[in-house]
Amino acid sequence: MNHELMIFGVVLAIFAYLVGIKKATWLLAGYNQKRVADQEKLATSVGLTYALSALWLLIWGLVGVANSELVASIAVGLILLQLVYVQMKMVG
Question: Domain segments of the chain: what residues?
């Protein structure tokens, strides 16, 4: 069991809940809320990405993978891809 991955996964799960369910888009860095036309779509999209990343980290944290840096890098890469997608498609 890898505790660092699990803690990171729990933190991301909390952010996924706050952004995806509670629509707390003010927590997101790198987005100009005034330039995003559809705040609902932004919250749903980012919340889903955070939830998938959290699930990824929690599963591999429970399994106890030896290369935790690679697992965390994949999760961070997914979040960065989401950031690029939002900047290209949702910001007007």
Answer: 3-89
